[in-house]
Every structure is written in structure tokens, then in C-alpha cells.
Amino acid sequence: MPGRRRGAVHNRCGRRINRFLEPCLLLLLHGGESYGYQLLENLERFGFGEDPADSSTIYRILRSLENRGFVSSRWAEGDSGPARRVYSLSPAGDGYLQTWVRDLEETDRILHRFFSEYRNHMELHHSSGRET
Amino acid sequence: MPGRRRGAVHNRCGRRINRFLEPCLLLLLHGGESYGYQLLENLERFGFGEDPADSSTIYRILRSLENRGFVSSRWAEGDSGPARRVYSLSPAGDGYLQTWVRDLEETDRILHRFFSEYRNHMELHHSSGRET
DNA sequence: ATCATCTAGGTGCAGTATGCATATAGATGA
DNA sequence: TCATCTATATGCATACTGCACCTAGATGAT
Asked: Using the 8-state DSSP alphabet, how is residue B45 labeled?
């Protein structure tokens, strides 16, 4: 995966909804232990696009999760390449994932409230609608 | 609205999806000019809960929008109380709102991809599901 | 008058999140 | 031996947010 950390395109709004990498990593780790570089590849499954995130972000989130006791890590020799820091989810991390899911469900409700307000408003002021 | 800027509860995840105040403010301003203090009250409509945001955040977002040409402001004497800085949406701001909506629709897709992955995964590993 | 309160806008600081650049280093193959 | 891939990590700059705090006009009660 060469050049993976280049090319993060800025076609989104600056003050945007952040990407929710942390719960995605937790969910991936719920499926079994893994390490940063592999997790970065598996993040594509969530539809972030080609470049889900900078690798530094992934590594930092993993360390932060470990500091809070949600994952634990050990060094492991791989079949090839340099050693890997392999993370596994702790029971606390499992609970944290459930919290995240409830949190995201709430976010989903707020988001759809916004869409509802938007459509409602645009039906009335249908000047300057979305004539893309 | 006394004491309005106190009491921001931290029952959500730390590394959470940020609240999308900027597009909400833009949508409110699409309905007509307004000022910070009033916009803060009207934000409740979006279902953020009792305390949508700290007032300082609102004022700073508005100034940032103005710096980028998405809104313009003027001072206006109100019927009562101190003078208000009244903002109105610019054509560029209208376009920026449309960009935001497309951005949020993309976020919505990613969010639902996450929910789908989550449910899928939990059906298989239905140990440690959500026995709340 | 003056005092508390409401309305309205604002700054300073700290913590956190993120992207980009860069560093380190083992493994692998040309 | 040299480039490339795999893998982890740090430094720096920028941005978002909440909390504390400040300024100041208006309003009503005492």
C-alpha cells in the first residue's frame, strides 16, 4: 500500500462532521485481534472512500484506546515484514462500542431532523433550491 | 435565558461525531436574518437537547462564516436590550449550505454502512450483543 | 439612585482531533 | 546495495469545543 498517506482530498466542508474512526476500529477489533496497518486497510469496508484516514490518526486512536483500557496490545512477529503491535478488544472496550452505537443512533436522529428541517424549509422557499 | 452557557453534559463519547452547528446556523439564516443570541435559541429545533452549544461557539462560527463571505453582518438596535449583530446569508453562503447538505448526505450513507456492518457482525457473534 | 437580572456579544485558555511531513527500521526482491 | 514494501511512531500546525470570564446596555424592583 505505497503512498497510502498521501492524497487526502479536501472536498468536504471544513467545519464538518468528523469521521467516526474510533467506533469502526472497535467494531473491527470485535471481530478479532488485529494491528494498525491491517485495520487501516479494513477501514475501507466502511465506505470512507479510498483513503479512510491518515495512518498516524489510526495509530494514535489505538494508543488512546489502550490508555483508556478499551484494548490491549502485544508485539507479534508477522509471517513477513517488521513486527506488529497487535491489539485485542477488552470487555470494557466491548461496552464502549455499545455506548458508541447508542451515541451514533442519537447522531442519526439529529441528522435526520436536520434533513427534515431542510426539506421542509426548501418546499416553502423553493427559490434557491438545489438546481445543481 | 440566564445561565445558558453552563451545563454542557458529557454523556457522549469523547471522540465523537461533532455536532454540526454550522449547517444548522446556515439553514436558520436561510429563513431570514437573525443574530447570535436568537440563533442559539432556535438551534433547539434541531434536537440537540436542552443546551445545543456554548454561546461562544455560536459567535465564533458566525464570525468565521463572515470571514469566508458566507454571511454578512450589521449592527442593529433591538426593541429592547443591547444592540445586536444581525447576520444575513449571502449567495455564496446559500451555495455553501447546499454543499453542506450533500456532505451530510454522504455522512449519512457512511453512518448507515456502519450500522449495517454492526448488525451483520452481531448476528454472527451474538455473544456480547446488546443486553442493556 | 442602585442593585440584581436579563440580553447580547466577546476573549483567553486548555484539551482534543486531525492532516501532513518526516523518521525509523525490518523484510524482500531486483 | 538499493529501492520498495510493511509497520509504527513523532513533531508541528491548524481547527473545534467547552469552560471561565469580561464588557456593557436595558429593565424592573426596592
From this structure: G
The distance of Cα B31 from the centroid of its chain, to the nearest Å, equals: 15
pLDDT, one tens digit per residue, over B17-69 is 566 899 999 999 999 999 999 999 999 888 876 667 889 999 999 999 999 99
Q: Is A44 on the interface with B (CB under 8 A)?
A: no
- Report yes or no: A6 at the B interface, CB cutoff 8 Å: no
- Residue A42 Cβ < 7 Å to strand D: no
Q: Give residue-wise pLDDT tens across range A12-55.
A: 444 455 668 999 999 999 999 999 999 999 998 888 766 678 89
| Sign, CA torsion A39/B126/A92/B8 | positive
Scanning the structure block, which residue is given the C-alpha cell 455522512? Answer: B107
CA distance linking residue B110 with residue B102, whole number of Å: 13
Q: Could you give the maximum distance between any two Cα atoms of chain A, in Å? A: 63
